[in-house]
Design a protein that fits this description.
The complex is a heterodimer of chains A (404) and B (139). Chain A is α/β, with parallel strands linked by helices. Chain A has 13 helices and 13 strands. In chain A, the strands form three sheets. A seven-stranded mixed sheet of chain A has the order 2-8-7-6-5-3-4, with helices on both faces. A four-stranded antiparallel sheet of chain A has the order 9-10-13-12, with helices on one face. Chain A has a two-stranded parallel ribbon with strand order 1-11. Chain B has a three-stranded antiparallel sheet with strand order 1-2-3. Classes of the chains: A alpha/beta (404), B alpha+beta (139).
Amino acid sequence: MELPIYLDNNATTPMDPRVLEAMIPYFTQKFGNAASRNHSFGWVAEEAVDYSREQVAKLIGADPKEIIFTSGATEGDNLGIKGVYEMYASKGNHIITCTIEHKAVIDTCKHIEKMGGEVTYLEPGPDGMIDLAELEAAIKPTTILISIMYANNEIGTVNPMAEISKIARKHGVLVMSDATQAVGKIPVDVNKDGIDIMAFTGHKMYGPKGVGALYVRRKNPRVKVTAQMDGGGHERGMRSGTLNVPGIVGFGKACEICMQDMEKDMVHTRALRDRLEAGLLQIEESYLNGHKENRLPHVANISFKHVEGEGLLMGINKDIALSSGSACTSASLEPSYVLKGLGLGDDLAHSSLRFGLSRFTTAEQVDHAVKLVTHTVNRLREMSPLWEMFKEGIDLDKIEWAHH
Amino acid sequence: MAYSEKLLDHYNNPLNVGTLDKASKSVGTGLVGAPECGDVMRLQIEVDETTGIIKDAKFKTFGCGSAIASSSVATEWLKGKSIDQAMAIDNMAIVEELALPPVKIHCSVLAEDAIKSAINDYRVKNGMPALELEEKIVH
């Protein structure tokens, strides 16, 4: 077995070799600018972009004209939220989102607040799901947008987008979704889900980095966003800038493969995820974070009580690439705001590991991960004063800690 | 972030992990940090009553690799020192020894605090007044 093993696929995925193959001609031979109208180099590039637009649209049940290519999901989130805020200023200035959204949404909303907008941050339930009654109660006459992520990047919980959009429609409010982790991994259909604006990116679905898309609905209702990047008027004026043709070609190919292999990939990652979980949850005082059923098939977030996540990673990361919800640096002693947002105690929030599997993950890799994590958790517990106190039956909540 | 060989060695093979009898008069215990900050360090010293020399030191730490390695170094340095010598251990010496990156300096501060807290526990147990400790604010 080759080491190290990559199990951090929510951060980024390796590119599928089929994607790379599709991209290569567009660097050196078919290098034209898709906006060049007067020669074949431009036409070839434009044709490739059009074809990719179809591949991307098809994956999410959209019309190709509704796809705006971006540099990634962060740009998509910015364009979607700021673009709606500016375009619909005459209707209102209130946006509803959630506390465990990705920073690209949270920080964009904070920016909106600085510009005079009003934002409601809904608190999710302990499993990471949005409460629909709370969502509806938060809608006001000035609400212009509800922005809720399709699936959470840390815990994988999937939100009921169709039900969210039903409520939004009733009140005439637009629905946006940061679907970065969901698109390509689970069936996403903008019409069935009633989504008006949706951001996603290539590199989370075995495509290249630096290219993504914003879906913007064209009918029922026709949605418009003001451009955040001015220039040559590319992408129907909503996103100027020369198109990243090789990236777009790769993104399109990645979408096509995801669509064609989705069922297979889901069965594969779910089986391995379950195998991983069955192994790790045998460890005493280990807890699964997020929703047990409504979640992405390839994600598991598990806390190992009385062991610190970053310390745990140091024992593992020579062999296995993983990410932790804990951040033990002087700049930020705060553990993951997502886990805290679920109402998890500090003990669990500081003790979590996030596992993200992929279509390339093998059973052998998963078994090695279970073995190594189990060994490291046990080793660190042997030197954890909290574990010793827990074993002696001491209530850790009753101790007066010297806060630093 | 790349860590030094020494740090990784202390993390992988920590010295002096364990527990001394905290009820014993010759043992001083310091418990510093808090679970919500992501690090808790318990450091113990056992003092030879006749010579006043620290004859054993043990730790248990919940925290990142740098916190574990800092505890390991601190306990190793304590053994064979007098209380006064132990009081003089500075966190920056640990930073140097392990080549701690700036974001991990607080781990060394925690170790220094743990040493002082253990010494004070020993002093109070043995009828001496606790020493006033100056706050090192790094967090």
